[in-house]
């Protein structure tokens, strides 16, 4: 197994793990299908299947499995970009109300079924004793019996579909990359470059088959050059997927680090509000900080949940404290230090048993109306928390 093939195995396992975590993501489903199919289309996989079947899988059947697997893999890559571009990647909502994939997904699916049917028919029409010669396990098209029409049909249909699918995937990858982050764009451009090389290699193989079948003097350099293009294309394809995956993980890590930092930054505001209004605690997890247990250190979900719970509890506590804040003269336009001092006085007033003069709530630490988002709302809480004494 080559380093590229080993990396394909690792990537397949990684995307399969992500699919288990996000089973409704149609895009992940087709990417996992593409990776599994392309792995099955590798020569080492076909060789292993033939050994496991005690050579019951003939060279012709092995060739059909290999080329059909690659065809399905390329089709799945196209479907991924179609789902992403059409906004139907996520299967959400009730079954009857989920967004439907574009019609082209079904056309491409039907095309790959047709291609596989033609490949199987071509092999079936080849006499059994000639299959080992017609469809060599070496994968070298120049070793095939290209004087037979069914063999020519097999290779021409296969390389034509590979060129079409790889070329279309390259175009979609470039288009999709324009709307992605900078890091993901780099990975998608590598994917596109790999697909272009694979399309060129397939086209070169097709030219060689036509020349040989027509009796012309075929250029022996063509199949060798095609093989190199395909191998380099496979490397770029795998590297591109790796870069895209790492970009997604890096973005997730940045959010995790920010949530963990802001969770601790909210403590000076959260603690006195939590002591004053313990009933606002959403659940027991809010009473434990991320990092105190080993699983918290490796669980991004725990950090995110704790962060959002703390932010919500701060907002609920300020809402309940607002009648006392009105009595101590809280003003939204005051600097953060004066607002923090007002929060402390309001908490002391409430603890002393003072009854507020009005039960009307007061909006505290609110962002400007034109800038109201979840992040700006938490940002105002953080500004107030940083002004509170430790």
Question: What are the salient characteristics of this protein?
Answer:
390 residues; mainly alpha; Rhopdopsin 7-helix transmembrane proteins; 72% helix
Largest sheet features: none
> How many distinct beta strands?
0
At the first level of CATH, the class of the largest domain is: Mainly Alpha
Proportion of residues in helical segments: over 70%
Shape annotation: rod-shaped
Mean pLDDT: 81
Segments where pLDDT lies below 50 for 5+ residues? 284-288, 290-295
- How many helical elements? 14
Strand content: under 5%
What is the strand and helix layout of this fold?
Blueprint: H1 3-21, H2 26-40, H3 43-52, H4 59-86, H5 103-124, H6 128-134, H7 149-178, H8 182-213, H9 221-265, H10 267-276, H11 294-298, H12 300-327, H13 336-351, H14 374-387
């Amino acid at each position: 197994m080559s380093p590229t093939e080993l990396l394909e195995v690792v990537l397949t396992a990684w995307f399969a793990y992500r699919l288990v975590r996000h089973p409704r993501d149609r895009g992940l489903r087709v990417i996992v299908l593409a990776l599994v199919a392309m792995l099955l289309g590798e020569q080492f996989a076909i060789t292993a299947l033939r050994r496991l079947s005690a050579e019951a899988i003939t060279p012709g059947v092995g060739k059909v499995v290999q080329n059909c697997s690659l065809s399905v893999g390329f089709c799945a890559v196209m479907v991924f970009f179609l789902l992403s571009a059409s906004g139907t990647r996520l299967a959400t909502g009730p079954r009857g109300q989920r967004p439907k994939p574009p019609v082209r997904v079904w056309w491409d699916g039907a095309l790959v079924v047709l291609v596989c049917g033609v490949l199987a028919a071509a092999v079936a029409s080849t006499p059994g004793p000639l299959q080992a010669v017609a469809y060599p396990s070496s994968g070298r098209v120049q070793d095939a019996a290209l004087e037979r029409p069914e063999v020519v049909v097999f290779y021409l249909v296969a390389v034509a579909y590979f060129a079409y699918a790889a070329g279309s995937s390259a175009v979609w990858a470039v288009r999709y990359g324009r709307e992605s982050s900078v890091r993901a764009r780099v990975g998608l451009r590598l994917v596109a470059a790999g697909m272009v090389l694979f399309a060129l290699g397939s086209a070169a193989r097709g030219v060689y088959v036509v020349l040989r079948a027509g009796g012309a003097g075929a250029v022996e350099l063509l199949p060798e050059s095609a093989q190199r293009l395909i191998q380099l294309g496979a490397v770029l394809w795998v590297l591109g997927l790796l870069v895209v995956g790492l970009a997604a993980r890096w973005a997730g890590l940045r959010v995790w680090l920010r949530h963990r930092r802001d969770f601790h930054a909210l403590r000076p505001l959260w603690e006195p509000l939590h002591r004053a209004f313990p009933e606002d605690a959403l659940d027991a997890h809010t009473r434990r900080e991320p990092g105190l247990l080993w699983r918290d250190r490796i669980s991004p979900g725990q950090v995110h949940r704790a962060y959002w719970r703390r932010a919500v509890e701060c907002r609920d506590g300020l809402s309940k404290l607002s009648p006392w804040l009105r009595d101590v003269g809280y003003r939204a336009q005051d600097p953060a230090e004066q607002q923090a001092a007002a929060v402390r006085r309001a908490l002391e007033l409430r603890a002393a048993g003072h009854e507020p003069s009005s039960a009307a709530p007061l909006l505290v630490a609110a962002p400007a109306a034109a800038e109201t988002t979840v992040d700006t709302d938490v940002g105002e809480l953080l500004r107030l928390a940083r002004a509170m004494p430790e």
